[in-house]
Design brief:
The protein has nine helices and six strands; from the N terminus they run E-H-H-H-H-H-E-H-E-H-E-H-E-E-H. The chain has helices at residues 19-33, 39-42, 50-61, 67-85, 97-106, 120-126, 150-159, 173-181, 210-217, and strands at residues 6-9, 110-114, 135-137, 166-170, 185-189, 200-202. It has a six-stranded parallel sheet with strand order 3-2-1-4-5-6, sandwiched between helices.
Length: 218
């Protein structure tokens, strides 16, 4: 008898690409503070909490702020980001994801979301995927950021699955590390050089072919 498995998906860069909206909002904030924030800089914020992202951004610009100023900028950044999110539609679901979720549904395989974003439910709702997930773990459920495995361990709990029977889909180095620490199978989406610690690496989500899925299920 084949062992029961479940999937846990990161959100940004896996289900949808909201990194571009984060980038625009962070870049505008950096401009306001008087320094440049590049797409390369933005890579450092992948899979990182909002508070930590601001700290990294301020480090890049060598800017010091008081705690109250930091809170002000965090709210400002999130408000701008939510403006973009509220305009999202199903067209923003990454290639291959709908087919992958259909495949999992057809094979009675449960799946959860494991994201650091507190906006995850809103994003899923905007793109029409909220009701498809068996369980959701977002920034409101966790106290430790990836690479701590907390987000995925809570996901496994909510799915009522053992960690070793979970497959995590991630696009960030910290996320792959978290999955591996949790003793889960990791699938990295993106550059194989960066995500080499993952059990499997796909260049993009459209590589979730039936052939690949059968391979990992067996």
């Amino acid at each position: 008898m084949k062992k029961e498995i479940a999937f846990i998906f990161d959100l940004d860069g896996v289900i949808v690409d909201t990194a571009k909206y984060h980038f625009l909002a962070w870049r505008n904030l950096a401009n306001e503070l008087g320094f440049e924030f590049t797409k390369q800089n933005n890579e450092l914020l992948k899979g990182v909490s909002r508070v930590r992202s601001l700290e990294i951004l301020l480090g890049i610009g060598n800017v010091e702020l008081s705690e109250s100023q930091k809170q002000e900028y965090l709210i400002k950044k999130n408000t701008e980001y939510l403006g973009y999110v509220n305009q999202m539609t199903a067209d923003e679901i990454l290639p291959g994801i709908n087919d992958l979720l259909d495949f999992l549904d057809q094979n009675n395989i449960k799946y959860a979301l494991g994201s650091a974003s507190k906006n995850a439910p809103l994003i899923l709702e905007k793109v029409g995927l909220l009701d498809r997930f068996t369980a959701l773990v977002d920034g409101n459920d966790v106290s430790k950021a990836k690479p701590d495995p907390e987000v995925f361990l809570i996901g496994a709990q909510k799915l009522q699955m053992k960690p070793e029977n979970c497959i995590v889909v991630e696009d960030a180095i910290a996320g792959v590390e978290a999955a591996n620490t949790a003793n889960m199978t990791s699938i990295g989406i993106g550059d194989a050089k960066l995500l080499g610690d993952a059990n499997y690496v796909l260049a993009n989500t459209s590589e979730f072919t039936p052939k690949f899925l059968q391979k990992i299920l067996n």
